[in-house]
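Supplementary Note 3. Input sequence used for the single-chain structure prediction.
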Amino acid sequence: MAGKLKELIIDEIAWKSIKNDGLDIEYSTPIPRALASAIIKELDETLEYFTGDLAKIRVFGKIYPLPRQQVAYGDPGITYTYSNLTVPALPWPDPVLALRNFIFRLKGIKYNFVLVNKYRNGNDHMGEHRDNEPELDHNVPIASLSFGEERTFVLKHRDARKSGPNKKPIPPVSIALEHGSVLLMNPPTNEFWYHSLPKRKKIRGPRINLTFRKIR
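The predicted structure, written as discrete structure tokens, is reproduced below.
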């Protein structure tokens, strides 16, 4: 897989830019379908996901099972805390390291942490949130790679979520995350926009998503 990724011609990749009221997204599908299918197969055969307390999340004081499978990798000693859950970064496995190196070739950014989420089917999902934790380097975009079933990524402006006179009529933005795609959430996106991956009950197959981050 690593060799095939190195063969991709970076200069020929076309990016779509989406901007709106603090939103700054870049999106592309740079990985050919056959290679993307080989990558998700290798990830499925290689990765082992968190169990026990690391497979749970606290919401409004109550603990629930994560509605997806999750694991994290990164440089030695790194941890990441969100929703009162602190996850340790396990050592980089070869296929994930190859994808980190591919992102470095694409954008010249060397990430030191990745959160991997496996959505087993359309019932697995991610609720609305912002990736604005204090340990993140907020000057560096979050890079999201998707493999498997196409899912809808929904962004909502923080002022559109308010009620009463403070609510602003800013429409949500939906992006279909294709097999082999890369999405970059450039700053200041996570300051103003919440994002989610809603349920899609008709989807029966899996999707693996890797979000590369720079921890300070």
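Helices lie at 2-7, 33-46, 94-107, 189-192. The chain has a mean pLDDT of 95.
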